[in-house]
Amino acid sequence: KPGWGSTSPEKTSVRPGRTKTSPKKKKAKKQHSDLSDKQAVDEPSFSKAYADLCQRLQKKSSQRMEENEEVVTPVSVTFRKLLLNKCQEGFEKINKYELDIANRTKEIEETPDPEKKKELKLLLDEDERKVRRKSVGLVRFIGELYKLHMLTPKIMHGCISTLLSQVAEEPLECLCTLLTIVGKELEHETGRREFDEYFA
Predict the structure, then answer these.
(1) Does residue 1 belong to any structural domain of this protein?
(2) Which range of residues forms the domain containing residue 108?
(3) Is a pLDDT exceeding 50 seen at residue 10?
């Protein structure tokens, strides 16, 4: 299936003579997108600031592509594409985290040794806190990127549908966080009817 980075908030045509991105620049863009994504996720209270930073980096990346004189036909790798595909990878892991926690919980319940059980439970609680913080941070960051028009309404509705299909506590917390950030603007863009269908 296509990645989030393959979609654009605005329909644009690919002009002949699109600039080429060198391997060195591709690596630099990937490092920037990885770093921005990690910091935004690990520090949820700064999600908006990091989203603003990513938008500025994307604009600079686009300007440099326009100024580059080396011309080829294929579409170049952009900062936005790398960043959004990274966000997509993280979002798709939310459900996998829940499955992992469920499996580990079952393992703890089946452990006969009380001391071992206690140790495993402490490790699970710590990992669960980290995962929850990371998941909520990622969803906040995704929401802020949408508000800056770096993500489409279609992607947002896809995220909402995915989170609604989960029954665990963490995805529901992520859903509440996402709706708090993008709900008003998304409803304005796509209409109330789409939201009503979620809760019909």
Answers:
(1) no
(2) 18-198
(3) no
Q: pLDDT of 21-60, one tens digit each?
A: 455 455 544 544 454 556 667 676 778 888 888 888 887 7
- pLDDT at 160 (0 to 100): 94
The tally of domains found in the chain comes to 1
Please report, for the domain that includes residue 105, its CATH number: 1.25.40
- Give backbone dihedrals phi and psi of 28, rounded to 5 degrees, phi first: -65, -40
Buried b (16+ CB within 10 A) or exposed e, 113-136: eeeeeeebeeebeeebeebbebbb
